[in-house]
Amino acid sequence: MAPLQVFLLLSLICLCKSDDRLTPAKPLSAGSKLVSDNGVFALGFFSPKNSTADSYVGIWYNNIPERTYVWVANRDNPITNASPGKLVVTNNSDLVLSDSQGRALWTTMNNFTSGTTGTAAVLLDSGNLVIQLPNGTDLWQSFHHPTDTILPGMPLPLSANDDLYTRLVAWRGPDDPATSDYSMGGDPSSDLQVVIWNGTRPYWRRSAWNGELVTASYQGSTGFIMTLRIVYRGDKLYMTFTVSDDSPSMRMVLHYTGVFRFLAWNSNSSSWEVFTEQPSPSCDQYAYCGPFGYCDATETVPKCNCFSGFEPNGVNFSRGCRRKEDLKCGGGDNFLTFRGMKIPDKFVYVRNRGIDQCRAECSRNCDCTAYAYANLQNGSTSDDMSRCLIWLGELVDTGKFRDGENLYLHIASSTVDKESNVLKIVLPIIASILILTCVSLVWICKSRGKRRIKKIKNKYARQHSKNSKSIELENETIELPYICFEDVVTATDNFSDYNMLGKGGFGKVYKGRLQGGNEVAVKRLSKSSGQGADEFRNELVLIAKLQHRNLVRLLGYCTHKDEKLLIYEYLPNKSLDAFLFGMFCSHGQVSRNILRITEFVMVVNALNFALSCKMPQEMVCLIGRPGSR
Ligand SMILES: *[C@@H]1O[C@H](CO)[C@@H](O)[C@H](O)[C@H]1NC(C)=O
Ligand SMILES: *[C@@H]1O[C@H](CO)[C@@H](O)[C@H](O)[C@H]1NC(C)=O
Ligand SMILES: *[C@@H]1O[C@H](CO)[C@@H](O)[C@H](O)[C@H]1NC(C)=O
Ligand SMILES: *[C@@H]1O[C@H](CO)[C@@H](O)[C@H](O)[C@H]1NC(C)=O
Ligand SMILES: *[C@@H]1O[C@H](CO)[C@@H](O)[C@H](O)[C@H]1NC(C)=O
Ligand SMILES: *[C@@H]1O[C@H](CO)[C@@H](O)[C@H](O)[C@H]1NC(C)=O
Ligand SMILES: *[C@@H]1O[C@H](CO)[C@@H](O)[C@H](O)[C@H]1NC(C)=O
Ligand SMILES: *[C@@H]1O[C@H](CO)[C@@H](O)[C@H](O)[C@H]1NC(C)=O
User: Fold this and answer.
1) Which residue has a Cα nearest atom 13 of ligand 2?
2) Helix (H, G, I), strand (E, B), or coil: what is residue 168?
3) 401 by DSSP, 3-state: which?
4) Which atom of ligand 8 is nearest to the CA of 378?
5) Which residues line ligand 8 (CB under 6 A)?
6) CA-only gyration radius of the chain, Å
7) pLDDT, mean of residues 286-291
8) Segment 538-562, tens digit of pLDDT
9) Does the pLDDT of residue 445 top 80, yes or no?
10) What is this entry's stated membrane topology (predicted)?
């Protein structure tokens, strides 16, 4: 109800009915109470423990048998001595609660001094206690200074830069109205979401506002509706709730246990009925599933999950999930869409971005792990209707629920599903072709293979006659230049991340420049790759044998303690496997080529073993670029 209407209404009836208001001439003392005009709310002195003298001033439901307080004035400063207190409206238009010695225990501090005759404190039908000037202006209202309860129509500001910004603060115990460590209100770092804190640590978080004006709606057992809304005034957001006319008494309360509850009074059972509570008892608590994990509330029994491309970081989700494959810088424009998400916390709000610009904002940033976009057209009154959020680093406190929004997760290119599917299909086909080819070429192998290998060997012997070591595999000998470890360290700037071209199951690939200026790609086999000395030698010999203009050339190798390094020529453009697999189109081709070649060599290797086929050069040509011979 608008203040002016209230004032007019009250002006008409106040002469006969004045028990809903205090004036400077009529203070409130223990034993008496104000009752709102509709009889629903009462203001007075109380003691929650029912034993000592009244020690608090508060507002409660006047028509509900179970005493339920919705507001307390002096919650941290109770009246301690046995003598009764007094609540007065001063000539400065303030409400002041004082004890029998005249000490002020609580005051509204308006300090409004000009023209003050006729000021009154009125308990409205909504449960709002307001201090009104004679012309109807509200100087102060209890709805702007809540304790632990939100009543219908009461706004909870989300913007921390709001004059009215405040938090709900829970009672310390069932009978102790003092402020506890649990508080709830707008998140000052974003102005877009509501958080419950336990001290300074978040305990629960509502997903960032996405432009929906009605964020939840509940229907009670007798058909009434209550609706949770977000209202946007100017550039400030408020959370509030409204109820249909036929509804019973309703409230939202931050319970002393830290749980936020939505309650309705059931007159049949004479008790408060809980509609919803947050956090729910499952995995809903803040960051419960750890970084990169999310709580799936669409399951019958909500439980933690990892994003695809991630695996649990340990036996349970206490440490969240980790990437199966590192996000490669310049990994490009690859995103996986997760629908129906409670989007994570700790986002960066980028202003004035369309959805494509928002995506670009994330894809060009190496540290960007995800983005989410929403259009605020129905709410915002400012010019910027966009809500582009990006995440740099870990994704914490994510969830999945029925009304969630889209979250776009930045992923390493090689984990795109499409790609792995193509690999799954293409590799067996190639393997079959190789088998057929190999079988049909066995006789060629027998007759011509040996000669050719010898030729390669001679070629290498000529090219790298100095600084070469012989490698023996079975009864074959191939010569490859050995490059000393120090040279590789120098070439790659001590394997600096800056020079890293890519990474895979076999290890990392670095770009380097050897003395003399040759650009090389150095594959550093990871110590955990399980590639032992034999396999290493095997690969060396096979790749050396496979020298072909469509393959990346192996220039040398290096071993040092348990380091195993392969040095390839650096090809800035696509090569064989770009043709083979046709989809490594944009980034870091060289590194991936080398990794794929390793896979290719393994296939060949297996065939070699199975069929004792000495790999002839013709075979390479079959899978080389058409017309390349
Ligand atoms: C509160 O007081 C009433 C009557 O004065 C009494 O019947 C009731 O047991 C008391 N409750 C508690 C919790 O002490
Ligand atoms: C308020 O003002 C009236 C008249 O101006 C005066 O009689 C009264 O004592 C004042 N009350 C207080 C609490 O100062
Ligand atoms: C109100 O006035 C009193 C006394 O003059 C002063 O101590 C207090 O700080 C003032 N409060 C505000 C909010 O200005
Ligand atoms: C009401 O009166 C106060 C002071 O007398 C004044 O500041 C305010 O603007 C007035 N409000 C309206 C709506 O007239
Ligand atoms: C709140 O924090 C306190 C102290 O850190 C802790 O003992 C308590 O368990 C926390 N409460 C919840 C509900 O997690
Ligand atoms: C209370 O009981 C009456 C009669 O059984 C029923 O019509 C009404 O819906 C009930 N109210 C609530 C709030 O359950
Ligand atoms: C998860 O595992 C760690 C140790 O691995 C243990 O300390 C922790 O209590 C476990 N948490 C849950 C919720 O089981
Ligand atoms: C805005 O409101 C219109 C109609 O009220 C609705 O169709 C549309 O989905 C809303 N858009 C958003 C982003 O909420």
Assistant:
1) 90
2) strand
3) coil
4) 1
5) 211-212, 375, 377-378
6) 37
7) 94
8) 666 666 665 544 456 777 888 887 7
9) no
10) Single-pass type I membrane protein
